[in-house]
Amino acid sequence: MPQGRSPILELQEITKAFGGVEALRGVDFVLSAGEIHGLVGENGAGKSTLMKIIAGVHTEFSGRLLLDGRETRFRSARDAHAAGIAMVHQELSVAPDLSIAENVFLGSQPTNRFGLVQWRRMAREAGEQLARFGIDVDPLSRLGDLPIGLQQLIEIARVLFSGARIIILDEPTSALSPPEVERLFSTLRRLRDEGTGIIFISHFIEDILRVSDTVTVFRNGRKVAEAQAADTSKAALIEAMIGKGREALEESYTEDIPLPPLSDRPVVLKASGLSLARSLKDVSFEVRAGEVLGIYGFMGCGQLELARILFGKLRPDHGGLVVAGGQATFASTAQARRAGIAFVSESRRDMLFHQEPVYKNVSVSILDRISRLLLKPSRERLIARRQVEQLQIRPAAVELNLGMLSGGNQQKVALAKWLSYPPRLLVLCEPTRGMDVGAKSDVINIIRDLRARGLAIIVLSTEPETVLSLADRILVLRRGAVVREFSDEAISKDRLLEAA
Amino acid sequence: MVTGEGVTVSAGKRKRPRKIAGLLRSQMRNIAPFLTLICLSGFFAAASPSFATLDNVGNILTQVSVTGIIAVGLTFVILCAEIDLSIAGIANVTGIAVAYFTQQESYVNIANIPMAGWAAIALALALCALLGVVNALGLTVIGIPSFIMTLAMMQIAAGISALLVRGQIAYKVPDLVATLGSSSIGGIPWIVIVAALMLLGGHLVLTYTRFGRYVYMVGGNREAAEFSGLNVNLILGSVMVIAAVCAGIGGMLGVAHFGSAQQNEFDTYLLDSIAAVVVGGTSLFGGRGGIGNTIVGLFVLGVLNNGLDHVNIDSFLKILIRGLILLAALIINVYAQRLRAKAVD
């Protein structure tokens, strides 16, 4: 803890469990006035859970929360807000159809004594605040017309200038360009010098080291290290984040593993110069039959957009695809499917029909192969039963509503729907996210098996283990651009994180 | 992090005693409208001796036929979680068009274009299909929400109707339409037979064809349908055209049934057909329900309208009662959705 500053927020022995799984185990945390406190840790390490406790989102937990030395319990996010705690969440939460000024003053518009909004005052003050932030826009124009990065900056500005004493920023820089990040940091430093306590969460360790005074590292729900930013390094923080395999239940990829030499099998898909607004910049790659191409990057690096371009859900501004030798621009997902491309979204909710039985979920993408006009339910059930057996989906009942299955089994169904008539290319977003160890290794084995059967597979993930356990080649995406390709060389988790 | 496996196991242990309750809950959507129908029928049968007669059953069937024909297409639309407000307008303009292309009596003062019966029918069908295609393009290609798109189409259809009849009334329709709309075979009105066949056809398409499955999938989870590689826009466009053509057929037969073609003739059919579909238990959120539900909904409305005429109630009060019963049915619809969501969780 920095010397000479008084702690404004103290957490002691915080433990929080979700349905039997401990997300936080006995965590102590101190934030001082006039301090920028960086937080790092892998996905699921417990950072966001702790922040949500501070911001009053999670109200059930054990341990003590002291504000200005007095024990406090927030009953709601509103309570925390009233106590001067403000948070910028990872997901953009703005009102795109309102004006910029209204967004800056969301919920606290200046009114005159008749309760009418003072538009001119609001516009002027919003403009002044944003100007301090280096944003020069017309405060009365519609927020949704601005690029995503600026919208995010304006959301951050709203929180920064709300007068809160404690500000939490969860992954605020993912959609920002380098000059915007710079502006954000100088504003954070100014607020710190004015005495605000700031908690800053980011996957970008350089950013953390540049702006923070103190850095705390989380791993598996525990606080594993705390250091002055000046006294530590990126390598030390990464090591603390991923550990040396002591606590990991599975392979932790701390040692080098070799990537195989480049395959000489035919190219299935070639992407060249894909660009999309602020999400992707000139992304090019090839993927071959019988090969898994891993695409790794932090949240917001453009992976999701890239996957959606490959499946015809988004159209790139520039660049194009060549599938099996033919030029392809997909006008719809249906066209991409007919070209032999299969897609599994990062969110099961977007992939599956929870109110329909398993067999209908399995057959939906191949119905046109097995029936022209009339459905053939017995054929559908047969195919579904075969998939359920092959992928060991439990319970093995194809009539059961999908919603009754566990997350891991649902993920298998999302895969199964593409496999009765194997596609040329399988695009998988976060194939193992949120799964327990057993289900995870099942899915990884299924994917390896598909590779052995000659499918071209692209795995996009923000989890290094997933990419490392599957990929033959790895592309690293950073802010929409390919910054590194690993191929035919040794790789470890440290090196992968280092590259991102 | 989520231990889905553990959750499923613990749910399995508690399952047995809850099984029947769970089944009832998840079938609430189908059970509630049916109970409503039985209660209403029972009430009116007790309240009026003239209600539960064979003749009156025939009356009810005839009374719901035009609504039934229009509701077939609307069921497809609502199953996709869209809405079509232009069905009554399209029914009206199609009915007027088929009369417009038929030779009218000399006293009818409409500048019409008489032609052969089959041609008049073909042109009228082409017109309603075309309006359906415009709805479809607006919804899918341009991306106008169906509520607004079909609101505009409602006006457009009314406008075409107005231009065709210019405040006059036409009476003659082609023989085929006249027969189907207003005569009987073996004591059964043709219009009831047509309505029954169309409802049956709609049911078969929804239940046994690939297209029908896609309708349920698109309505159940549009995002998932798209990520499964279904052509969502094609399916949405198709249901808008189906709705328009069903409305057109209902309009033609309706004109024959009423014996005249004029402006604003079908205005009440918009709310009636939406009510029939929704009261029957088809989810406004899409993906749940079907023609079976629509049939129950039609009978609930039919029994209600007919039954209120058999009991001695202030005729102005009837409108209010109708409204209240529809409200009750809608509340049940929303609750059934929630109960089901809980049962699935």
What is the topology?
The complex is a heterodimer of chains A (500) and B (345).
Chain A: E1 7-18, E2 21-32, E3 35-41, H1 47-54, E4 62-67, E5 70-71, H2 77-82, E6 85-88, H3 100-104, H4 119-132, H5 148-160, E7 166-170, H6 178-193, E8 197-201, H7 205-211, E9 214-219, E10 222-228, H8 234-242, E11 257-258, E12 267-276, E13 280-288, E14 292-296, H9 303-310, E15 318-323, E16 326-328, H10 333-338, E17 341-344, H11 358-363, H12 367-370, H13 377-390, H14 407-419, E18 425-429, H15 437-452, E19 456-461, H16 464-470, E20 473-478, E21 481-487, E22 490-491, H17 493-499
Parallel strand pairs in A: 3-8, 3-9, 6-7, 7-8, 14-19, 14-20, 17-18, 18-19
Antiparallel strand pairs in A: 1-2, 1-4, 4-5, 9-10, 11-22, 12-13, 12-15, 15-16, 20-21
Chain B: H1 4-26, H2 28-47, H3 54-79, H4 87-100, H5 117-142, H6 146-165, H7 175-182, E1 184-185, E2 188-189, H8 190-208, H9 210-220, H10 222-227, H11 232-258, H12 267-279, H13 291-310, H14 315-344
Antiparallel strand pairs in B: 1-2
Helix pairs in contact in B: 1-14, 2-13, 2-14, 3-8, 3-11, 3-12, 3-13, 4-5, 4-6, 4-11, 4-12, 5-6, 5-11, 7-11, 8-9, 9-11, 12-13
